[in-house]
Amino acid sequence: MSTQPHPKPAPNSEIEPLYPESRILSRGQHPFDMPYAHRRWTMLIEPATYLNALVRDFHLAGGRIVIREFTSAQDVAALSEELIFNCTGLGARTLFSDEELIPIRGQLVFLIPQPEINYCTIAPGIYMFPRRDGILLGGTFERGQSNLEPDPAISERILTENARLFGSMRTGGI
Question: Where are the alpha helices (DSSP H) in 34-136?
Answer without folding.
Answer: 47-60, 73-77, 91-95
